[in-house]
């Protein structure tokens, strides 16, 4: 599945217990609490390892998530908008991560900028329902995808680095 460093990192992300999706209001609140706790723990781990690479926030009911993710390649930061919705069949079905600005630039992406996680990540998610959550999706789904696809897109000239735009500006 993954290298030893990834296994160690993922083993420190809390596993979730509540088997509930957004349709079950009472249990969804508990599941969402567990999701936030796992995400906070994962972000803390990343920061401690000097590997901060994403920001996420959700709408009030936790069904729509947006944010940014980034990768450092050749000492340059490439930043992308990230979004996803929680499927009604969650956690049995993993969310589909979208990076709209990369749509059409790689074969490992579907319509609307949905990244392809079917071969490697989806079977892993299915074996770990309901223990895996959004932190696991980021660590085992998005992180490896970015690490493989973005450098390839850069080398093909499909993604280029732009200078920061103003104070605190992002590049992409």
What's the mean pLDDT score?
90
* CATH topological fold name: Ubiquitin Conjugating Enzyme
Question: What is the CATH architecture annotation?
Answer: Roll
First CA to last CA: what distance? 30 Å
Uncertain parts:
165-171
How much of the polypeptide forms β-strand, as a percent range?
Answer: 15-25%
Q: Let me know the number of strands.
A: 5
Strand order of the largest sheet: 1-2-3
User: From the alpha-carbon coordinates, what is the Rg to the nearest angstrom?
Assistant: 16 Å
CATH superfamily: Ubiquitin Conjugating Enzyme
Total helices: the number is 4
Share of helix, binned: 25-40%
Largest sheet: 3 strands, antiparallel
The oligomerization state is single chain
**CATH class categorisation:** Alpha Beta
**Shape category:** globular
Number of domains as seen in the coordinates: 1
Secondary-structure-derived class: alpha+beta
SSE string, helix = H, strand = E?
HHEEEEEHH
Descriptive labels:
single chain; 172 residues; Ubiquitin Conjugating Enzyme; 4 helices; 5 strands; globular; disordered C terminus; ubl conjugation pathway; Ufc1
Explain this structure to me?
It is built from four helices and five strands. By secondary structure, the chain is an alpha+beta fold. The chain has a single domain, classed as Ubiquitin Conjugating Enzyme (Roll). A three-stranded antiparallel beta sheet has the order 1-2-3. It has a two-stranded antiparallel sheet with strand order 4-5. The protein starts with a helix and ends in a 17-residue tail after the last helix. The C terminus is likely disordered.
